[in-house]
TrEMBL record:
Superkingdom, natural source: Bacteria
Organism expressing this protein natively: Pseudoduganella flava
Annotated GHMP kinase N-terminal domain residues: 83-168
Location of the GHMP kinase C-terminal domain: 261-340
Entry protein name: Galactokinase
Domain Galactokinase N-terminal positions: 7-50
This enzyme's EC code(s): 2.7.1.6
Cellular component terms per the entry's GO annotation: cytosol
SUPFAM superfamilies the UniProt entry points to: GHMP Kinase, C-terminal domain (SSF55060), Ribosomal protein S5 domain 2-like (SSF54211)
One Pfam family this sequence matches: GalKase_gal_bdg
């Protein structure tokens, strides 16, 4: 693994970072113009940058110990550099001259866990480019460019939530997001509560999953219901007229938006936990994106007397789960859940709160 000094030959010109995100409620709603409640993770991705002296772009990931190089008129090789190239190309298309650069990436965000390591990479890259090249770019616009980088260069037809969270969220508050208007506001977590995040140990491959298929099903359901997006329907029973599986997909999105809106009101931690449980059941049964490992893990958490509720977080098909628990109990409750499922052969790990060394 190369150090930054090895890679740059001296100190980098800029060093910026962006967090991952955990979504508390509002899963698979962002590409339906809906509502979400993410928070930032303490884990993050760092990007250091400097101008290149050989006329080529160079990207190195210390986390993966992978290096890529490409000429300005070439595409980057497949891999993490595609996300970086997307950010560079999209800034150039906005009229921003981008000289050849060297970019050094390191991250303590676990990959393929559903904590949005890709959005953290995109946002950290754009922050580094903004600082290095003195670009006038606000947080929302930056998130929009990051989203397009993932869609157009990494081939994932994602919504805007992950990039907005990486750009705007913090670890102490929920970030309410409206995907249609991009309005957002910062909200407190429920009183007397804190978060647990556990990696199930089953990697999630978003680009290779059925994510894009779910998005197409939602678009078809919206068309049959005569609305621009499923966000425009508020009664889950309206989905009953649709054929399966469009009925189930729409019912999840409609009910999930309602859960987010209720969670933004004056509710206590116990009710918030109930909404998280309902969200997981909907993702499991109607949206069919859960897996056995996540179902077991969330069920173990729900049975803990210190836990209010638990659900998968991220697109599903593997990855992590999030739970809301009583203040001061997260570390112990998280360890109990990990020990319980691992005794049965799982390979779960506690991510938040981060285990002490």
């Amino acid at each position: 693994m190369k150090s930054p000094n090895d890679f740059f030959g001296s100190a980098p010109e800029v060093h910026l970072w962006a967090p991952g995100r955990v979504n508390l409620l509002g899963e698979h709603t962002d590409y339906n113009d809906g509502y979400m409640l993410p928070v930032a993770t303490p884990q993050r991705t760092d990007v250091m940058a400097a101008r290149s002296d050989d006329g080529r772009f160079h990207a190195y990931s210390a986390t993966l110990d992978q290096a890529f190089s490409w000429a300005p008129d070439e595409s980057s090789p497949p891999g993490f550099a595609r996300y970086i190239e997307g950010c560079i190309r999209l800034l150039a298309q906005r009229g921003q001259p981008i000289p050849p650069l060297r970019l050094y990436v390191r991250s303590n965000l676990a990959l393929s866990t559903g904590l949005s390591s890709s959005a953290a990479l995109e946002v950290a890259t754009l922050r580094a480019l903004r600082a290095l090249l003195k670009i006038d770019l606000d947080g929302v616009t930056l998130a929009q460019i990051a989203q397009q980088a993932e869609i157009r260069y990494a081939g994932v037809n994602c919504g805007i939530m992950d990039q907005m969270a990486a750009s705007l969220a913090d670890e102490e508050h929920m970030l309410f997001l409206d995907a249609r208007t991009l309005d957002y506001r910062v909200l407190p977590l429920p009183a007397n509560s804190e978060l647990i995040v556990i990696n199930s140990g089953v990697p999630r491959q978003l680009a290779e999953s059925k994510y894009n298929e779910r998005r197409a099903e939602c678009e078809a359901a919206a068309g049959m219901l005569g609305v621009q997006a499923l966000r425009d329907v508020t009664d889950p029973a309206a989905a009953d007229k649709l054929p399966s599986p469009l009925k189930e997909r729409a019912r999840h999105v409609i009910s999930e938006n309602n859960r987010v809106l209720e969670a933004c009101g004056d509710i206590d931690a116990a009710r918030f936990g109930e909404l998280m449980n309902q969200s997981h059941y909907s993702l499991r049964d109607d949206y069919q994106v859960s897996i056995a490992a996540l179902d077991e893990l969330t069920e173990v958490l729900r049975k803990d007397p210190d836990v209010y509720g638990a659900r998968l977080t991220g697109a599903g098909f593997g990855g992590a789960c999030v739970a809301l628990c009583r203040t001061g109990t997260a570390a112990a409750a998280g360890r109990r859940a990990v020990d319980r499922v691992n005794a049965g052969g799982a390979a779960a790990t506690l991510l938040i709160p981060a285990p002490t060394q």
